[in-house]
Queue: 2 jobs
Job 1
Amino acid sequence: MAPAMTFGKYQVQRILGRGGMGTVYEALDPHLNRKVALKTMIPGLLGDPGCARGSCARLRPRAPSTIANIVTVYDLGEDRGQPYIAMEFIEGTDLERIILNREAYPIEWKASVLRQICDGLGHAHRAGIIHRDIKPANIRVTPTARSRSWTSASPTCRRPRA
């Protein structure tokens, strides 16, 4: 059996998604026994070889506290030259999968999702944070139809009950 992959103190459980900016994993913080979403970023995209000294460090003073529709950032770091962000784990599915499944949702639900995304982005922009990668794959929709984004300035939405 292969050893578990880790980034810093975080133990990777599974891949949640991949994109042009990096990979998002479901991981475990063993110190707090807490599930996290761990986003590893391609080092060259940050424009700075040291995440803690570069672009990630600039998020620290501007990272919003707990705000509806924006995931909470728990930790920023670098492991073996690989920058990462540990964020609140949001149960649910991403908006891209919901769109691709082509299920019929009421217009009220769709409007609610869009409003929640705009609310989250509005809070982020007022805090001086620009998302730079807003897309359906980066929006989590919870079973209760709450929308949240996977990045430090990302929204989430709830799915309608069947």
Job 2
Amino acid sequence: MMRWIRSSSDTAVRCALGGLVAACGGGTTQPGPPPPPPPPPPPVGASLDLAPGEVVILSDVGSVRSFEIIGASEAREYQVIVVSASQVEGGVAAIRFVAAADAGAAAIAPQLPPSRAPGFAIASDPVSVESRGMGAPGSDVPRPRHLEIRAMLEREVARVGGHVSPKAARRGGAVPAVRASFAAAGVPQVGETVTITSPVVPGGGISCNAITHVSGVVRAVGQNFVIVEDASVAGHLTASDLALLEQELDEFVAPVDDDYFGRPGDLDGNGRVIAFFTGQVNRLSTPGSGSIVIGFFTPTDLLDPLECPASNEAEIIWLVAPDPDGDIGPPVTVALVKRIARGLVAHEYQHLLNAVQRSVIGGGDPIFDSEETWINEGMSHIAEEVSGFHRIGRGTRANLGFAEIGVGSPVLVDSYQDFHHGNLLNLSIYLDGPSGLDALATGGVSFATRGWGYMFLRWLGDRYGPPSPVGVVAGSAENLLFRELAAGGATQMRGIPNVLRAINAVSGESPSWDDVVSEYVAATASDDAQVGGLPPEVQFSTWNYPRLFSELQANSVPGLSAGFPLRQSQVAMGSGARSTSVFDIGASTARYFRFTASGAHPGMRVDLTTPSGANVPNGVRARVVVVRTR
């Protein structure tokens, strides 16, 4: 629980041991143009003398503008985090951060840790890509992309002004309590031929008017999915391959996704979701581009075919087909398709469930009531994560490291590759530049935004998910929180308002976004720090991130072998120390500094301004979080 107190220039802010204190409410003020010459420095707004494990959040204009950390006679370490709690998508502010010892002016430049492991490749293409278990860590398989396709789909639905299929109204938005209870006549049989309409335009692109009829063969039928293979590319996946996939989807993907994000509708009356391996997906990739599209869910399949002729009025997940010789697009091996299928379905199934909850069942608009991209993608990465937990009998709030999820038996190794490796790659990219991303993206998102969305929602589940009754995944009842997020409430809320509504619905708490993002960034910097008294609000309980990345490093997992990847500017607390940083900070992001002293040290004054020396504008919603971690 947050306590807010107002600081002033002559007030020493002290935090109760083990408590979380927010020093000062209120916002900053918008200054006029700075007069020449610059005014003298203002008085210190807050003086901090924290015990180990204590946390303070500065929020009023005076304390954010200037505060000091009291000197001490022993070694200490602090995490000092500059936060923008702005809710403006794409908003960026320029900040000047000056930390100086009480006396002296010897310059000490900030030192940055290695940014990432050798060979960690970031695609130059600005379009975000999928990053799920793409095979053995370190393989040269290109990381596939699909958000460009998702953007095309959304533009196409908006263009046609599509409405949900009238079948949804005729079925009353009903969701089967037990999908297996549907009449057998509505369930396709193995070997049956079906026709599915593709919205893929020859040569790439998506259109409701594409109307390419694709002949498919039903290869496996389970309690939750029907696996269909495009007849034109069939034969690479064996009957046993697809039967095993169907079994695993029934056992640890569908039960988890349904529990976390709601049950699917049933527009086509078969009581199941179609997983369609088709060359139509392969056609969306460009040979030689270095990445491939591996799958998607399209809301066009839920629309009225009078408005979108390519609609199948069915719940379908579109999956890349094996094409070893590259006859359709870039070569896609059988081994790759078999390796990515489980995590891919878990990811895309969440997108389908999210759309169904809001439009088919909730009655909302399929575009304007869809969840914002950063949350929607973050929930799909959560879907991968918890499906992976369920597969190996793990649960949330177990403070896991790599040893528990990826070392030992073939099942653990496969599960890590299928469900966790891609998530951790995205998370590493985010932590390597945590202040430079578009965190609140509503369109295509970057690797970094995916990592932020996933890590933020993981913390949100740990922080606000109820402890009981435990759902399908052991450890907590956080599924209730994510189900609230997926549905958006009675009015299909989106984005930050939906996050705050869901928190209140499951916990009864009513924090502001400023509170939420400040606690989250503190947890990112201080999770499982080797110090007592840290409040649970600023910890992750599902993962022990320092141990996780240490064990990844010890096991030489390519791309994740450089230790905990959080980029921090290092500031030495010593006589004559002075450190200056000028940086941009995006909305709802943070810049991290680590203050260290190996022994007795003077106090440090910190000034936070615009590059010209003015107060940080009110719209930035600047906060400073200070955590003593030694």
